[in-house]
Write a structure and sequence with these properties.
With 309 residues, the chain is α/β, with parallel strands linked by helices. 45% of the residues lie in helices and 11% in strands. The relative contact order is 0.17.
Length: 309
């Protein structure tokens, strides 16, 4: 990974183009009638982000493997309900709306022609790429995602915050440690423990039965972290209720593996790419062809104007 100085912005790209797809009317189409609402919505979103937050570096982080086998081996239910088709020799196919799938290669081609760094690493999710860039960044980091799992990376001391879309792609919640403490009772480092205790049906994480978000937050406030909670289970004089002690004790097999599944990787082998925010397209001819073929119009032009400013 090249040295990154200045403000780094990391896009959870799939999360954002899903939001764009559902937030922009499907009536937005290319000249041949193909919907391009996700493509244009994502370009508009990037334009807004660059205008409002002025990153020096920008990386579109990708899911090279949206359901890594090493996570599935630890918790078999991990994202299982989102599998459209299993592949023994490679990543399973994720269930994606029919009119979104054809737009993903277009998004990738446009980002490449623009010169916006696009990084996915075999065997890892975009979250892991984001976690690894964040761990190695020397300056402030803005993580743009609709996935609350990445709240675990929030760190005021290092200037790491999450920009979370709360309405479509136009309204963002700037999530720092104060926001996390107010909403969840934990800081960034405690969020992963909260999430694994509470569970997350959208990711197929069962959590600890009977331990909801508020109870998990109270346990973390009293005992510090997951290790402290498990130590309290073994301490007869600790202030756990009998039912909490029983549930946590019975959940030990899950709690032994859940941290590895829930916590994003920080040691992904990142490629040597230039993450500098481009001021001009890397491949103007390819971009012109893509703009004409897919009818990218004002969305692309606005972004090009913003990048050149």
């Amino acid at each position: 990974m090249r040295d990154v100085t200045g403000r780094l912005m990391l896009l959870d790209t799939a999360s954002l183009y899903f939001r764009a797809y559902f937030g922009v009317p499907e009536s937005i189409k290319a000249p041949d009638g193909t919907p391009v609402n996700a493509v244009r919505g994502l370009l508009d979103f990037i334009d807004r982000l660059v205008k409002d937050h002025h990153p020096d570096h920008l990386v579109a982080c990708m899911d090279a493997d949206w359901r890594p086998q090493w996570r599935v081996e630890l918790i078999s239910s991990y994202k299982a309900h989102r599998v459209a088709e299993e592949h023994a020799g490679g990543p399973d196919e994720e269930e994606v709306p029919d009119t979104l799938s054809p737009q993903v290669p277009v998004i990738e081609a446009v980002l490449d022609a623009l010169g916006i760094a696009r990084v996915g690493v075999e065997g890892y999710e975009a979250d892991d790429v984001i976690g690894s860039y964040t761990a190695r960044a020397s300056g402030p980091v803005d993580i743009v995602t609709g996935d609350r799992d990445l709240y675990q990376l929030v760190d005021d001391a290092r200037g790491v915050r999450v920009l979370y879309p709360v309405k479509g792609v136009g309204t963002l919640q700037t999530t720092d440690e104060a926001v996390l403490r107010e909403k969840y009772g934990v800081d960034g480092s405690g969020y992963a423990d909260l999430a694994l205790l509470r569970g997350d049906p959208s990711d197929g994480l069962p959590g600890v039965p009977g331990i909801g978000e508020k109870t998990a937050a109270r346990l973390l406030a009293e005992f510090g972290d997951l290790a402290g909670i498990l130590a309290a289970v073994d301490e007869p004089k600790s202030r756990l209720t009998p039912s909490q002690r029983k549930r946590l004790d019975e959940a030990r097999p899950y709690l032994a593996v859940a941290p590895t599944v829930v916590r994003v990787a920080a040691d992904v082998p990142l490629p040597d790419v230039d993450t500098t925010l481009p001021r001009a397209p890397r491949d103007p001819a390819a971009l012109e062809e893509l703009a004409g073929r897919w009818g990218l119009g004002g969305s692309l032009q606005r972004l090009l104007t913003t990048l050149a400013a």
